[in-house]
Design a protein that fits this description.
The complex is a heterotrimer. Chain A is α/β, with parallel strands linked by helices. Chain A contains five helices and four strands. Chain A has one domain: Rossmann fold (3-Layer(aba) Sandwich), CATH 3.40.50. In chain A, α4 links the parallel β3 (59-63) and β4 (99-103). Chain B folds into two domains: 2-117, Rossmann fold; 134-211, no CATH class. In chain B, 38% of the residues are buried. The chains are: A alpha/beta, B alpha/beta, C alpha/beta.
Amino acid sequence: MGEKKKIVAFCCENSSYKAAGAVTESSALDLVDIVRLPCSGKVEIGMVLKCLEKDHPGVLILSCPVDNCKYITGNLRAKKRVEMVKKALQNAGIDENRVHMDFISSIDTYKFVNIVKEMNDRLLNTHPVNR
Amino acid sequence: MITAVQKPFEEISEMVKGSQNLLILGCGSCVTVCMAGGEKEVGILASILRLANKEKGVSMEIVEDTIERQCDREFFDDVKEKIERADAVLSMACGVGVQFCSEIFSRQIVLPALNTRFYGATEQQGVWTERCAGCGDCVLAKFGGICPVARCSKSLLNGPCGGSQDGKCEVDPENIDCGWQLIYDRLKSLNLLSRLEENEPVKDWSSGRDGGPGKIVREDMLL
Amino acid sequence: MSELKAGTNLERVLQAGHFAITAELGPPKSADVDVIKTKAAYLKGIVDAVNITDNQTAIVRMSSIAAGVLALKEGLEPVIQITCRDRNRIAIQSDVLGAYALGLKNILCLTGDHQVFGNHSTSKNVFDMDSIQLIQALKNMRDEKVFICGDEIKNSKKAPVVEPRIFIGGAANPFGDPFEFRVIRLAKKVNAGVDFIQTQCIYDMERFEKWMKQVRERGLHKKVKILAGLTPLKSVGMAKYMRDNVAGLTVPDYYLERLSKVEDKAAEGIKICVEQIKRLREIEGVAGIHLMAIEWERRVPEIVEAAGLLPRP
């Protein structure tokens, strides 16, 4: 096996991506591969599943706060898709917690770090073999 | 278009059990439009199957492809080799495509990933509803362009039964509009209500399913 | 008096201008003949004819023709209900010949409840024709002496024509939507050749009277005998069930209030029913009543008696 795969974080460039960029020093940054999206509404079911299929331990979808999407409902669309992914994982007997969605603003650097760390801890508990 | 929905994952998983080399074959026509069996859905199903197999420790090579249409012979040329190399084909086409694929590759096991539903329209994004029952003897001219055969739960030709309430059908008031309410409203707005006073005789169903499997031959098109 | 079409008791009563009473007898959900005998005993001599339902609400019961023959033996005159849900035109015409041969001469033509409401909700339905087309078919069998396909009703070229002479009934639901279509449906049934109509059970008398007004405006009451449907309320629970679960039925609040105020709900329900009968008799064009006392046949005699409709002609 090659190097350990990281958590993939799909980040909206209007919020979580900026928050991630403002994190100066944190071990959390070493735990994630950040993918910049113009809006979390760009996230697709297939993209999320592909990450898991490629052995990334987990996927984060980090969108703008619920009522504050630049494209008005992009984050809500993302939320519905995440629900679909979770349902599909459940049906296939796979831990749905490998996918997690959260809503953060561009100044929530602290929250960003916490979300990543918490995700990592959850995955360590449920999927120790993957690490 | 012909509409379809994906079968429950468990059923698909049971069907493909034992396959070592599975081809998931999408269809680029109707089922792509109704988001059940196009390229995107092929990718998603393949991913989920791979993940599930990994979880269970099952080894199964999964190949993905999508052709323009599975109800026309020529489009299969591009995937001939992939089909022949696979030990099973999981077709994401409608029932027509699945059968045609299995007819062309008669030695192959071809499995359906979808449940084919009806001839429908995209009512709004994410919602498809039935419009035609394929009776082979179109009556739309008489009913203001709304089909009582397809859109009345009892295919009544002489008006609504007592189960029509507030524009809804008692069979499923949340999801089914009363076709006859629609016909009534349309003809009223067209000032053609008098048409509804005419007794409609028994219908000739022989041009549809009741006449046996259908066949159309166009002499001028035959080679 | 014009010539009788089928010569049944129901036809005679209606022709003579008497206020007719029909009741309903639901066949058993088993092969238990005693159920029919018991129910028949309550109704004998009390009503002019008794509807034998055809797998009502799509729940499997003894066939209406078989139960009809049993009821006939018990001294009742049956009205056989035939729905279009379970049989195509071949089976229905065949059953009509059979029913007639067995002495069953009143037939009520219905479209039939959709099977989703019954105990075999996953079954396939037929609906080859609808109730109006069925009426037309029976009329053509009786008067034109032909089947739907146009063939004459005889056993061979040289054999005599022996057509089923049926007194043809239909149903009307004045409470379904669209309201204006309801009278059009009735007109179509009259065009098709229906002889009598039994309506859906009535609680909303005002809407029924509005519908009857439309019926009279078209002169339909002169072409067809209309029997107003009634179902006595047994309890508040039943009233609420009818109101909330039967499409096209409204049960006005004042009936619910009356029932909830008294100790003996059944007696009050019957009292309401009798009052309704009296009011219905005043409406021009109402030729009788159709009492659908659902699994309550034993109370029919007292209703008929209290309404002053005994003895029967």
